[in-house]
Write a sequence for this structure.
């Protein structure tokens, strides 16, 4: 339902994405795993039409996102939970989304319940929200249109352990109901616990992809991840040192 | 599947029932423009800062009309014109804040994900401030009438009800133009502080340019929107004055808005 085909993105002299190819099928959770700066967010922005690939193509449900008639009813997106007006209430953020998509206002209450934000919290302004509340609001916004495809960039950032557990369950349930979920993360354990399929990325290139079992090659997923990302680590002097990668991979 | 499906119906699933049937049908039709318009109009007043701007604009119109009436006496046309000073100052700012807001708070990220046809969002954003310019102009006229009557009564002076309908129309049009200039400048720069500074520096700019010999004077005569719009706002514009107004409209509204549109369409949203 999501398809990246030979997507490259060049900013000046930097190749942010280099020939990225992978697909996400219906009814599965795919983890997009890589160290910070690997190109995950760039790839997701290209997928939802906020940036253009230099070459290659990304499609959702068979079409470039921007050519979907009303993409918000098919694809739920959370790219940055912090990107909201601080003076707007959480409820108002969702109301604007529901209005845009032509959904009844009752839908706002439904998604609030779904992500566990209370009535009172929803009437507070976004500026006062904790990081965890922002993530929940962002997920609520992504779910407004009961989408068949979910695209989430680092959705677990700032969630407490209960929150992470809740989200894991939510994503599993949505996948089992037929949803295609793509979530990015730099946290190996988070991805490992929820994803059926993992795409590892470093310095803009897909390093490996497959199920967690396939990728662990009998010695654990972490070893594979560190080995693959070690020489792509961006910090100076960290080349070929798996130890340096560890800080980024599992911090 | 059953357990998971069940679970989904308990929580997420409020989703499937109300949505899949009716609203989901809308997934194959683009979002109607009137819906985008309603959303963008709502964004103008759904935050505290937005409400404050709205209240300040209304209050300034009332205050300037009443204060001028108390000082110069019951002259309807003069009182209406006074409101224009407040509107001429604040409408460009409203226009700038309206277009730049989504970049300042990075809400463009969600807005353009819901409607990737960015030109439609920009159009929906520009209409409410232009309509507000018309509404506030009418409001100023409506406030000026009782203000004139009251001042006439209180100060025991004969009220001067003389107005030129064409003048009021042109005056309203002038207010729409300054709002549009703010929108265009905001769309071009996508940065509120920079746009506001430029907006408020232009009178100084033209004062200087106008003194730079005959070429400078000609430039100011043709391109200073505040000067070229004056005949329109008086309601007695000649053809040559109309040509000058058109030139400054192209310079301050058409060109920056076109460049801003290209920028909004092409720029990556991060």
């Amino acid at each position: 339902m999501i398809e990246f085909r030979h997507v490259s993105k060049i900013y000046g002299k930097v190749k942010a994405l280099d020939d990225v190819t992978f697909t996400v099928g219906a009814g599965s959770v795919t983890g997009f795993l890589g160290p910070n700066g690997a190109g995950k967010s760039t790839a997701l922005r290209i997928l939802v039409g906020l940036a253009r690939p230099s070459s290659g193509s990304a499609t959702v449900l068979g079409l470039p996102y921007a050519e979907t008639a009303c993409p918000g009813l098919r694809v739920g997106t959370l790219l940055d939970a912090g990107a909201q007006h601080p003076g707007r209430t959480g409820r108002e953020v969702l109301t604007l989304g529901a209005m845009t998509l032509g959904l009844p206002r009752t839908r706002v209450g439904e998604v609030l319940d779904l992500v566990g934000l209370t009535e009172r919290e929803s009437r507070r302004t976004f500026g006062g929200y904790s990081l965890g509340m922002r993530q929940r609001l962002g997920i609520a916004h992504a779910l407004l249109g009961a989408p068949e495809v979910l695209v989430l960039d680092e959705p677990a950032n700032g969630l407490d352990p209960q929150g992470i557990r809740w989200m894991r369950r939510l994503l599993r349930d949505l996948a089992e109901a037929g949803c295609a979920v793509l979530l990015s993360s730099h946290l190996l354990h988070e991805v490992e616990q929820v994803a059926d399929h993992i795409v590892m990325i470093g310095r803009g290139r897909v390093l490996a992809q497959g199920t967690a079992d396939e990728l662990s090659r009998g010695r654990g997923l972490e070893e594979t991840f560190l080995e693959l990302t070690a020489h792509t680590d961006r910090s100076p002097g960290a080349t070929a040192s798996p130890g340096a990668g560890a800080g980024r991979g599992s911090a | 599947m059953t357990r998971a499906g069940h679970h989904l119906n308990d929580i997420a699933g409020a989703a499937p029932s109300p949505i899949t049937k009716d609203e989901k049908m809308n997934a194959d039709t683009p979002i109607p423009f009137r819906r985008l318009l309603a959303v963008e109009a709502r964004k103008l007043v759904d935050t505290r800062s937005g409400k404050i701007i709205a209240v300040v604009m209304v209050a300034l119109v009332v205050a300037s009309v009443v204060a001028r009436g108390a000082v110069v006496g019951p002259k309807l046309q003069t009182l209406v014109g006074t409101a224009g000073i407040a509107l001429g100052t604040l409408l460009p700012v409203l226009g700038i804040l309206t277009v730049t807001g989504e970049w300042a708070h990075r809400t463009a990220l969600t807005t353009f994900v819901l409607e990737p046809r960015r030109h439609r969002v920009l159009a929906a954003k520009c209409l409410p401030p232009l309509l507000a310019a018309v509404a506030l102009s009418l409001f100023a006229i409506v406030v000026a009438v009782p203000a004139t009557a009251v001042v006439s009564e209180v100060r025991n002076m004969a009220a001067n009800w003389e107005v030129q309908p064409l003048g009021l129309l042109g005056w309203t049009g002038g207010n729409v133009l300054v709002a549009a200039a703010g929108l265009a400048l905001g769309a071009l720069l996508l940065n509120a502080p920079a746009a506001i500074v430029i907006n408020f520096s232009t009178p100084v700019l033209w004062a200087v340019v106008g003194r730079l010999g005959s070429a400078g004077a000609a430039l100011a005569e043709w391109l200073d929107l505040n000067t070229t719009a004056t005949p329109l706002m008086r309601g007695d514009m000649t053809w040559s004055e109309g040509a000058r107004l058109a030139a400054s409209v192209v310079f301050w509204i058409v060109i920056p808005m076109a460049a801003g549109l290209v920028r909004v369409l092409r720029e990556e949203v991060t």
Observations:
- Strands of chain A lie at 2-11, 14-24, 28-33, 55-60, 75-78, 149-153, 180-185, 197-202, 205-210.
- Residues 161-176 of chain A form the longest helix (16 residues).
- The radius of gyration of chain A is 18 Å.
